[in-house]
Predict the 3D structure of the following.
Amino acid sequence: MNIANYGLIEKFAKKHARSRSSLNIWYETVSNSNWNKFDDVKKTLNATDIYQDCVIFDIAGNNFRLIAQIDYELQQVSVRAIMTHTEYVKDKWKKYC
């Protein structure tokens, strides 16, 4: 999979240093994946949910969330937002979906 908006990941990791290693693992895992449907995503990264046309990835043991949209045909993951769990529960991320 190709990952668009990698700059959001870098920016978040600078602000939240605890997230860096988990985001790096996420990036490597996703980059080396070939998904055709959400079930493929779930098999690769079990701590994943879907909301409308967004996929929500749990990062660092549920401490952070990465919101993305996936174009399975183009093999592209577009990062829409990354946030702390506290920010996530406020549901403002839903505007990206």
User: Anything to note?
Assistant: Helices lie at 6-15, 20-31, 38-44, 85-88. Residues 2-89 form a domain with the YaeB-like fold fold (CATH 3.30.2310). The chain has a mean pLDDT of 95. The chain has one domain: 2-89.
